[in-house]
Specification:
Blueprint: H1 2-9, H2 11-29, H3 36-59, H4 61-67, H5 80-99, H6 103-123, H7 127-146, H8 155-178, H9 180-183, H10 190-194, H11 196-213, H12 216-219, H13 225-245, H14 251-273
Helix pairs in contact: 2-3, 2-7, 3-5, 3-6, 5-6, 6-7, 7-8, 8-11, 8-14, 11-13, 13-14
Length: about 280
């Protein structure tokens, strides 16, 4: 039973959310301190993201019964109503913890919860919209961390949030290209509407935009040469993916692109963290 809940909650993504929240706060305050309010915000983000993951599995149970019958709900290992109740409980706890920090954090928590629930219930079926929702939720995690200070808008956090937004949006499109066969007849995705090449081109343009914003912190004097070296590696890889993906048609390749982008996003966090050294 624990294994099946582990599968649904996807705790690795929750850990990444914790890192994002902490880094947003650290960049805004230029400190690696971990006060109680940051711990509360990190825990809130973990709970809310986990709630969204479980909700997604709940609303996808009919589709998964055909394409992924091994998943916890369609396989019968976890009752659907239990999953829904756990998802709602996690959303409530996450929002409650955010409310213990300040009203700005609470507001962002409510927005993030609404985005994730709406994605699970509605926009995951219209994934050309849902892709942007997932990307926005990812970028919002960094702003969530900065909001612990009572304000938002510091340049480093804004750039990091934009980088996360555009690169995640591209990654979601690549994942949809990979899943075209499974999604046909169940979801409205960009690749199914426009085709592989146009979709890959759009994802590539999003990666180019992500690359374009990355030098800004260096030129503003916020980040040093160490940042530029680390982020330059990520940028080169992003551009390589953007170019090569347009000429690919094999779904396995797009799976690889999505996984590489995820790894590169982790490298980007290291680049921004150099400002704290």
């Amino acid at each position: 039973m624990v294994k099946h809940w582990f599968t649904m909650l996807r705790p690795f993504n929750g850990v990444m959310a914790i890192v994002a929240v902490w880094l947003g706060y650290a960049l805004a305050t230029k400190t690696i301190a971990l006060p109680v309010d940051v711990v509360l915000a990190c825990t809130s983000a973990f709970m809310i993201l986990s709630a969204g993951m479980v909700a997604n599995d709940f609303f996808d149970r009919a589709i998964d019964k055909k394409n992924k019958p091994h998943r916890p709900i369609p396989s019968g290992k976890i009752p659907a109503k239990h999953a829904l109740l756990v998802s709602i409980a996690l959303f409530i706890v996450g929002i409650g913890l955010a409310g213990m920090v300040n009203t700005l954090v609470l507001g962002i928590a409510i927005i993030a919860s609404a985005l994730l629930y709406t994605y699970a219930e509605t926009t995951s079926k219209k994934k050309f919209i849902g892709n942007a929702v997932v990307a926005a939720s990812t970028g919002l995690a960094f702003v969530f961390g900065e909001a612990v200070t009572g304000s938002v808008g510091s340049p480093a956090v804004v750039i990091l949030a934009l980088l996360a937004f555009y690169s995640t949006w591209a990654r979601e499109i690549y994942k949809d290209i990979e899943d075209m066969k499974a999604d046909k007849g169940h979801r409205e995705t960009l690749p199914l509407k426009e085709g592989v090449v146009p979709s890959a081109a759009i994802a590539g343009m999003l990666l180019v935009v992500a690359v374009a914003v990355t030098p800004v912190p260096f030129f503003l004097g916020i980040m040093g040469l160490e940042y530029l070296l680390v982020i330059g590696l990520m940028d080169a890889c992003f551009l390589g993916i953007a170019f090569s993906a347009v000429f690919q048609k094999k779904s396995k390749k797009f799976h690889a692109y999505a996984q590489i982008i995820k790894a590169l996003q982790a490298i980007a966090l290291i680049g921004f963290a150099t400002a704290l050294i």
